[in-house]
Design brief:
The complex is a heterodimer. By secondary structure, chain A is α/β, with parallel strands linked by helices. Chain A is built from 3 helices and 7 strands. Chain A has a 5-stranded mixed sheet. Chain A has a two-stranded parallel sheet with strand order 6-7. In chain A, a hairpin with a 4-residue loop joins strand 3 and strand 4. The model of chain A has no long low-confidence stretch (mean pLDDT 90). By secondary structure, chain B is α+β, with helices and mostly antiparallel strands. Chain B has 15 helices and 10 strands. In chain B, the strands form 3 sheets. In chain B, strands 1, 2, 3, 9 and 10 form a 5-stranded mixed sheet that branches. In chain B, strands 6-7-8 form a 3-stranded antiparallel sheet. In chain B, strand 4 and strand 5 form a beta hairpin. In chain B, helix 5 runs antiparallel to helix 6. Classes of the chains: A alpha/beta, B alpha+beta. Chains A and B meet through strand 3, strand 4, strand 5 and helix 2 of A and helix 2, helix 9, helix 11, strand 6 and strand 7 of B. Chain A: This is NADH-quinone oxidoreductase subunit C. Chain A: It comes from Ignisphaera cupida. Chain A: Belongs to the complex I 30 kDa subunit family. Chain A: Pfam families: Complex1_30kDa (PF00329).
Amino acid sequence: MKQYMVRKEFMKPNRDVYVVNAKNIRDVMKALKESYSGGIYLATIAAVDKVKENVFELNYFIHIVYLSKTIVIKTTVPRDNPRIDTVIDIFPGAYEAEAEAYDLMGIEFVGNKYLKRPFFAPVDVVAQNIYPLRKDAPV
Amino acid sequence: MAEREATTVIKIPITLDIPIGPQHPAIHEPVMLKIYADGEEVVHAEVNTGYNHRGIEKLMEKNSFYKDKFISSRVCGICNAVHENCYTRAVEYLAGLEPSPRAKYIRVLAMELERIHSHMLINAIMAEVIGFDTLFMYIMRDRELVMKAKEILTGNRVEAEIHMFGGVRRDIDDVKKDKIMDILKKLEPRLKYYRKLFEEDPTINSRLAEIGILKPETVLGYSLLGPILRGSGIKSDVRAEDKYDAYGEIPWTVITRPEGDSLARMLVRWDEALESLEICKYILEHLPQGPAVVDERKLPRVFPPGESYARVEAPRGELVYYINSVGGANPYRVKIRTPSAVNIINSAFSYVGHSIADVPVILVSYDPCISCMERAIVLDLKNNVEKRVPLKYIAQKKVRL
C-alpha cells in the first residue's frame, strides 16, 4: 500500500485519506482486497469537479468491517480526458458508483462494459450531451 | 460465403413482455427490474433506473448550507430523520459544532422511532406480497402508533425536521415523554407477536426460508448493506462502529442471523425493531437534563473549507453524505449514497437461478419486478430438424450449434 501512496491526508471526522496516482488505482484496490479479504466493501465513489485545478477528483470510500473503519482512496483525473481504470472486477459493488459517476459527471471507467447513458439523467439532458453534475453544466 | 457455410439458424420467436415497472404495484421504489426467464427460471436480471432522479445533489450545491438541511430530509419520506441527521453531522464535523447531550438523545429517539415504523412497513409489504393481506392491514394499523409517537416528539407525523446544526429544534417535556412511553408499551406486545408469527408460521416460513440466499462474501463483494449484511451473518452496524450521537452511551446489541435468506432478513428487521423499542425506552428514562434547542440566529452563516464524510445507519443500511466545502455559504459538492441505491442496483445477480414466483419475495426483502420470457428454436439446416432449447443451454454451451 505504501509504495503507491503519494501523500496522506485527513478527512473529518476521522477518516484517513490516501492520495494515489490514478494509474495505480487497480493495484491499490487489489492490495486492499487481499489484505482484508472477506471483511471489506466499497461504500461509494464520490466524484468532484474541480474546475480551478482542471481535474476531476475521485474519492473511493472503502469500509473495513474488521477495523470498523472507513478509509478514503483519493485520486485525480484530467478534466479534458476523464478516464480511469474500472475496479468493478475487484469490487462488483462499484457498479452503482461507477455508473452514476459516468452518467452525471462524465468520467469513463475503462473496462466497465455496463456503463450506459441515461442511467439517472433524463433523456433530453443526455441528448444534448450534458453531464449535469459538472460545474459548467447549465442549470 | 458465410451463407453457404451456415448450417444452423437460431430464431428467437417468443418474446413475452410483461411491463410491470417502473412503478411496482407492491412497493414504492420507481425502478424497473427486467427479468429474463427461461420457463420459470430467471436467467438474467437487469435494473433500469432514472425514473425519479430529482437532481438533489446539484440542487444542494446551488443552495446554502441551511436550506440544504431541509432539502436533505426530503430525499426520502420514510427515513427523513436519518438523512437530516447524516447531513447535519457532516456539516457539524466541518464547522466543529457539538450538540448537547440532551439534543443527542432526542436525535436518537427520532431516528429509532423511524427505524421501528420503517421495519414495520417493509414487513407489512412482505406480508402482502406473500398473500397475507389482513396481516398487512394489522401491521399498518399498529405502525400508526409509532407515527403518533413521532408526531408527539417532532410535531410532524412523517417529516421529523428535528435536527439543527449543534442541537435540535424542539425539546420534549414530561407530558410528552409519558405519552410516548404509553404508546411504546402498547406497541411492544404487538411487535413480539408479529416477530413470533414470522418465525413460527409454517406458510410464511415455507415461502421465505431458503429463498434468495446470499453468502457473506457475496454480500460484501456487491456492497449490499443493512439488514441484508446482518442477515448474512456479518456484524456491521454504523451505530456500533461510529458511535455517533448517543449510541455510544446507550446499551444495545447488533442483531445478526447466519442464514442469509429472505426470512433471515425479515427476522433481523423484527429483532431490530424490538431493539429500537428498548433504545427508545432507555432514552425516555435516562434523558439528560440541560439545553437541547439551539438558537438558530447565533449559528454561523458561513462555513469553513474542508471535506467531511458522515455515515449513519438508516433502516435500510449505511447511508453516507460526503460534503466538500471551499468556504462560504454554499457547499461545493454534496454526494449522497443511499443504501437502497446499492441494495437495488447491485443486486440484479441475486435473482438468477430462482423461479419467477420467488422474485417478488427476494425483491421485497430488498425491492420491484418485470418479466420477459425468451426461448430459442434451433434449426438444423442439414437434417432439416427443428428443436426447441432453453436459452440458458446455449449460453452454457450445452447445445452444439
